[in-house]
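Hi R.,

Here's the chain you asked about this morning:
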Amino acid sequence: AHPARAQNLLLVPTSTGRPDSSVLSLREMRVDVGLARGFASVSVRQVFENRTATDQEGTWRFVLPPSGAVGDFAVWDASVRIPGVILEKKRARAIYRDLTTQRIDPGLLQQGDEDDDDLGQELSAMLMRCEYYRTAVSDFVAMRLDDHVYWVEKGGRNEMNIQLYAAPLNVNEILRKVLFNGELPVVLTSATLSVSGKLDYYMRRIGFDNGTCDILDTPFDYENQVKIYIPKNMPLPDEENYLESACDEIENYISRTHGKAFVLFTSYDNMKRSSDRLRPFFDDKGITLLVQGEGKSRSAMLSTFKQDVDSVIFGVTSFWMGVDVPGEALSNVIITKLPFAVPSHPLVQARSERIEREGGKSFMDYSLPEAVLRFRQGVGRLIRKKTDKGIIVILDRRIISKRYGSIFLNSIPKCQVEIC
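And the predicted structure, written out as tokens:
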């Protein structure tokens, strides 16, 4: 949810008929979106600072029925608590109707001193944000966007946060129209765009078919800076004793570098179970274990990791990419599983079904290249400058036992590989 989109909802008339911007200023706001029994609900809570008295707060709740029509909006519960004023539901409905249709009492926007002008401009901007927010929820419930897949995810502590998602099945048609239409020059650059030394998958994926492509050599000497270890006797990831064996190998390779490692997982569940199992090992070794999702933000974890050279991070998706830790602090990257997307995820499932309907092979045409690109991003965490050295451990023997495994190894710079 974007709280700013509903920021104006409680800037409504006080007993004098207009907000007093010299007294009230917004200090805190929370917006929650819920989905239950086919209804989408939006709850907005705001706390104001009163420069002359105590804090005031108010909560609004609105419900959007499944039809998603603008006229079907109804106030579920609304009240504003400020000195001497309680806004009754009848008045709340009227104000909400004005907000959602971008009609507002002219008295609110009376021209006067400079503060009033600023307030009017701010309210107008907030009304536009509120309208965008309302439209987004309405479009989601009514599923108005063609060739999109819709889903709801729960997360956060006790799974109390609900997020609404809508994503296009094919981004190539959109990008070809708005980005690669020839009106402006476009340059795309990244260290992880190719699969097996070719850019075909990425070009097809984004709709880029009328331009120049180049693959440049890496500036690093991977053959002398990196060594890959692949334990050949590891159980397959779906076998019962896989997690136990993976934890044994993590202990082994963490001991070699005395920490200084990223251990990359593909699921929170396996990460949590592994961290619970291995915590006594880290305590005995005097190595700090930082686990994603256990209180610290990613930036706070990275700051601690860089300061405590022997520490270890257990991380999932966000630690596979966009993380830069040059030097001795990161000397070991352990990849617990090849990063295939979960087949049952709504977006993955919908895109795979579309590929199959069009005569393609969803695994080779979508799941595999996506996993290779993510794998390359994970491997790339290790070497960030020419003086870096370290090891990469792959605890998924499919990389040597399956025919497609060679595609992963052929997609990274050539380096030493030991199958042990």
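Residues 1-26, 35-42, 46-93, 99-113 have pLDDT under 50 and may be disordered.

Let me know if you need anything else.
M.
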